[in-house]
Amino acid sequence: TRKELARRGADLERERFAGIEPDGHRAERELVWEEKLVKLAGAAGIDLNKLGGAKSDPSKVLLAAAMKQSTSVSNGWLARRLAMGQPASASQFVRRALLQPAVRDRVERLLSKVKT
Fold this sequence. Notes:
Helices cover 72% and strands 0% of the residues. By secondary structure, the protein is mainly alpha-helical. It has helices at 2-17, 22-44, 58-70, 75-81, 87-98, 101-113.
């Protein structure tokens, strides 16, 4: 389930960051998020260098939703990395998308293709 995926991802992140100083922790965490984003984009057939211009572009929202479901990614990082506007906007785009059963299914299928 989504909760299990998120918990597993959080556990792996805690292990990876054990003993790292706060500034190093932030940089390492962002590196983990970038690695996961690249894997998700590849599995979804999305070119991260050619994302649509709209803040709510479906590809951006799909990737953001998958990241939110499987990692501890911050809304701020997603908003900056995917050019989704303000952090609250990224959060709302994801929330609205996940209310749609078709999008939830697509996110779950995508997550099943990408190992943590």
